[in-house]
Amino acid sequence: MNILEIIGQRLRQARETVGYTPEEVSQKLGISTEELLLFESGRKSQPLSVLRKLAKLYGVFVGYFYGVEKPEGTAFTLLLDKAKELSLPPETVSQVQRFIFLCWEIVKLRQKLGIPKPEIPQVDSKENLGELLEDMGIPVIRLPLGRGLASAMVCDEDFGAFILVNSDCPDPNRLIAHEYAYILQGEKVHLNAKDCPKATLQSKPPMSKVLWELVLTAVKHELISTSYAADVLEISPMEIEEFL
């Protein structure tokens, strides 16, 4: 299998995973359905600009299309399966997939930096719970989830616990506490399938303190490139340089 065929196969798999039709994707990207299907069949080369748009649409990293490893862990697979069972919109499923890819990135960076999996902490206070958990190594990742999903969590035996919160919701601390309770109960995955009102203030919250610190540390130690770090954090390479 040549590289175009690998990319095409991954493009099709990513699209089908989140539930988009070829027609929906072509409309969103402003290309013909025939051209998209040529990409997916491996019969036509894809510009990097198109791959970046598709990666964002499907909730994956560009490297995934080139055959880079997929997230592992039974709990991660179970979370995505449950998200699809809920018949959530493709836009929401793609963000769940993005969450899983970010969790797996955290796992890989911890391994590269020699940081052990954090134990599940016992936190009594619900005030600023997200900050407290992140200070103890439990990532709280905030993404715009759209309709039908307020929060979620995954707790993998080998890789640890991770919390996802809809960044559009006005009361993230309540949602974090909700998912943290399921972690303490020993659940592997949980999805809080509820709509939430839009927050009145739309300032973009940090994606995750744990993720940011791991990514920037890895760049400083030259374990990952600036461009790759920018892809993970969804900012420009120039902004990465400024943070360093």
The class by helix and strand makeup works out as alpha+beta
Share in helix: 40-55%
Termini Cα gap: 40 Å
Q: Give the number of helices.
A: 12
What value does the Rg take, in angstroms? 18 Å
SSE succession: HHHHHHHHEEEHEHHH
Strand content: 5-15%
What best-fitting shape do the alpha-carbon axes yield?
globular
Low-confidence stretches: none
Largest sheet: 4 strands, mixed
What kind of oligomer do you see? single chain
Mean pLDDT: 90
Strand order of the largest sheet: 1-3-2-4
Number of domains: 2
Number of strands: 4
Task: Give a brief description.
This protein is 54% helix and 9% strand.
Question: What do you see in this structure?
Answer:
It is a single chain. Helix 2 packs across helix 3 (33-41) and helix 6 packs antiparallel against helix 7. The protein starts with a helix and ends with a helix. It is an alpha+beta fold and 244 residues long. It has helices at 3-18, 22-29, 33-41, 48-58, 62-65, 74-85, 90-113, 129-135, 172-184, 209-220, 226-233, 237-243, and strands at 140-143, 151-156, 160-166, 189-192. Helices cover 54% and strands 9% of the residues. The chain folds into two domains: 3-65, lambda repressor-like DNA-binding domains (434 Repressor (Amino-terminal Domain)), CATH 1.10.260.40; 73-244, no CATH class. The protein is built from twelve helices and four strands; from the N terminus they run ααααααααβββαβααα. The longest helix has 24 residues, at 90-113. The model has no long low-confidence stretch (mean pLDDT 90). The chain has a four-stranded mixed β-sheet with strand order 1-3-2-4, sandwiched between helices.
